[in-house]
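can u pls check wat happens w/ adenosine-5'-diphosphate
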Amino acid sequence: ASSNGRNGAAKSLGVRRGVRGNFVPPVRFNGGSTSGAAAAPRQQHGGENGVEDSTKKCLELLVGPDGELPERLRNLEPKLIEHVSNEIMEQDPNVRWDDIAGLEHAKKCVTEMVIWPLLRPDIFQGCRAPGKGLLLFGPPGTGKTMIGKAIAGEARATFFSISASSLTSKWIGEGEKLVRALFGVASCRQPAVIFIDEVDSLLSQRKAEGEHESSRRLKTQFLIEMEGCGSGTEQILLIGATNRPQELDEAARRRLSKRLYIPLPSAAARAWIVRSLLNKDGLMTLSDDEVETICTRTDGYSGSDMKNLVKEASMGPLREALTQGKDISKISNDEMRSISLQDFMSALQQVRASVSQHELGLYEDWNKQFGSLA
Ligand code: ADP
């Protein structure tokens, strides 16, 4: 999708153009320093002011109708803004509600709390003003990231996705600035959804001994930005996802005011995942009874465990054909038998449930204490 896709072509209007349509940077680059940014994802030819062409293109899309870069972006290093635009912002996450199995409760809450307000900000004011932040918590591989992407898709919002652990590890010392760039770019790209995976690693209540000054500053900056987003007329929704909700402190819980438990898939949802993955590849030849057998044998499997199971099972026919002497460089799909229940039974030996009963109990306890219950 081009940057003029569903999400905000209007934001690129107002760019000043020179004769013959060449872009004239209307932006003050504050000395044009591109050094020091931990992220210089790729080197491109340098342009005027020492600002590379790729960076200029990103800035071009962010200038306002007055031809200036918005105030809050002006003091940030162009490279950081570029990193947010290129690596963190996704043009079209390409996930819809219909791609997500089960989770009806979560979908209903999210539609009301997030999608309607993003679509109709005029109605969702005052008493109906939506919460600022949403927390999706639960075992890994249950669809939290998918929900984040689907929200952006359904609400026709720009989607920003970043893992909090990359902020704390990869961006040592730079994380705070990156957070400012992230929220700054999001404010130029409204409506926007900012999805923070592993949010616990950023907003943990653990006072790590010798907690670095920089990570403390990062956390503070993040909380400040969160406080600001969604206030006034800003249409930025923050979604945090975590497999370790117990780690979140009180300040984080307060800001992520809606907290939805994303549980393991039900048997029906597991069946749906198996069917849809096989159908997608034209490989669905199992009977209803066989699918049901798979479902009864996969109690406790997450959505991503199910995906791995299907992958493993789908290798059965290929492995068999190869042991029968077929040549991997020449074999075609017609030379393989269809996937059978037996393939799934063998795959079950390889792919086990990744979440333990004990862990599930902890999620349920936390949900009772802090979750937004049905
Ligand atoms: P997490 O909860 O860890 O964010 P993801 O949303 O990244 O999990 O899911 C990982 C993968 O598992 C997805 O790409 C998808 O293939 C599969 N999956 C997980 N949950 C579901 C679901 N409810 N419906 C369909 N697929 C799912």
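Residues 1-48 have pLDDT under 50 and may be disordered.
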